[in-house]
């Protein structure tokens, strides 16, 4: 059974009062539910329609259960592009809000919206999700959901005060291999899990800089804001793509929880070298003088209450092919794979040698790796079997279809989304906690229990 929203379960705590929130009367919460029930279609609005937001627009626009009501973005050009997408699909023009960074608050006042997808720069995520829940609309927030522990608590406290769900839009959780992994773990293929590894190993140098080696106001899209984090913050600033699927497999917040974390970072070389060696950069380019804070490789170890360890890697400044670096080790065996159906090693004839591999004691040949392909096929997730055709042409190999569909379905069915506010808080907390650990020379930091003890009795995610 999916976790239904239990409106009697809202906990009135001192921290709620501290956050300046009061519990909504039951009548008000019922009104929210009724407004969702009354609509024939789920009415969706978007805050932030840059590259990622428009990808969501495109997916929601193909969903016959959804209506697209409004766009808010500080860029009128971004909104115009989003309008073009829905126009092509024969949809009516959405209402626009583009008069500055807080104009989205006007969008949230519209009564005919059930859910809001937030795809803005990281610093805005938690505030916009909180404002969305307070406005009585489901919040779907891009990754990571928060950048500070205070923001993580704001998300949880607002959810508990309003009874309005907040979904973290972690699309990698819906990857075909990642869901097959979940399936294998749940079916006990690897025995009892003891260790996992994951990460975000993605050469982002060409995204952190554009128009040559520019970032900030002289650039566009993520170079305008993401690169700033490499300058100012030394932490795992983007933990959830790898950690989300592993957290689901390990029942985090559902019988298990993240306990403590230690992190360390290497020196920072990649961004400086990129600037110096770029044809439009060089030793004399002003950006060559910048002292980048983010270590090229940030390595984090998380300990869980059930006694597993998880190594999470963040590596976005070095030349390398994409990988999420998955490994999961249990008492019966292990699996290692790059994730998101990475092709493997390119061969001279243009084909790919797949390197995903499994070892299961008693099932595979002793002391030999076996290709994971057969295992992924055998444990293919029913969701993929059912929706493969629809998913295929959407972003990131299909995962964007599933994450958008789950957001709409959860609203339509008036239930908790599969990836909820406690996931948003625990997974996102890795950023501030890793930063603190690095600052203290690798000292362990302790995860707050965002569920306030509910993790002990919460049921496993029911994606299966
Ligand atoms: N899940 C994934 O696979 C995936 C992929 C890419 C990006 N992302 C995430 O999506 C988010 C957006 O990334 P992006 O690549 O689209 O960046 P982007 O810079 O292309 O888009 C961000 C948009 O937000 C708008 N914006 C900024 N401040 C705003 C405000 N106050 N009100 C309204 N709009 C505002 C900008 O004008 C821009 O159009 C980020 O959090 C990123 O990490 C996730």
Give a verbal description of the structure:
Helix content is 35%, strand content 17%. The protein has 464 residues and is an alpha/beta fold. β2, α4 (76-88) and β3 (95-97) form a beta-alpha-beta unit. The termini are close together. The model is unreliable at 1-32 (pLDDT under 50). Nicotinamide-adenine-dinucleotide (NAD) binds next to α3 and α6. The site of nicotinamide-adenine-dinucleotide has 26 residues, from α3 and α6.
Structure class: alpha/beta
Radius of gyration based on Cα positions: 22 Å
- Roughly how many Å apart are the termini? 10 Å
Assign an overall shape. Answer: globular
Please sum up the structure shown.
It contains 17 helices and 17 strands. With 464 residues, the chain is α/β, with parallel strands linked by helices. The strands form 3 sheets. It has a 9-stranded mixed β-sheet with strand order 16-15-12-11-7-10-9-8-17.
Properties at a glance:
17 helices, alpha/beta, disordered N terminus, binds nicotinamide-adenine-dinucleotide, 464 residues, six-stranded parallel β-sheet, nine-stranded mixed β-sheet
